Amino acid sequence: MARVRARSHEVDEMARMMRAEAEGEGKQGMLYVGNVIINRAVAQCLDFKNVNTVHDVIFQVQGGNFSFEAVQKGNVFYQRSRTAERRLAQQNINGWRDHPAKFALWYFNPAAPGCPPTWYDQPHTGAFKEHCFYEPKPGTCDSVYRG
Prior knowledge:
A hairpin with a 2-residue loop joins strand 1 and strand 2 (65-66). The strands form 2 sheets. The protein has a 4-stranded antiparallel beta sheet, with helices on one face. Strands 1-2 form a two-stranded antiparallel sheet. The protein has 5 helices and 6 strands; from the N terminus they run H-H-H-E-E-H-H-E-E-E-E. By secondary structure, it is of the alpha+beta class. The chain has helices at 8-22, 26-42, 54-58, 69-73, 83-93, and strands spanning 61-62, 65-66, 106-108, 118-119, 122-128, 131-134. Helix 1 (8-22) crosses helix 5 (83-93) and helix 2 (26-42) crosses helix 5.
């Protein structure tokens, strides 16, 4: 069963985002980015209380900027999606999740090697290639751990 409802244009947007944010990290890296997108759509907590769809997640504005650098800068995100990335996006929508991004709501690519132990006071759950992943502190966002 799908974790979220996603229309075809949202699968396309998600595929473009996964490619733009993590193409250099291969399929696995793109799936981890997809985990974060879906987790934000289901998490009714913290900065994601009124973010309910894939489209909402991708175009969310925080602090006056889009949440994702790929939307801000317009790099690969504004290219057409490819079949391979659409398949990966659909995998995430259908429930694929894995560590270190299984429950993650945040990720970033640090300028220096290594991941800080926390990101905006949220615990580090692991890294994959160039990305560090962070999930909410226990008790602050139980909705992300369901489904």
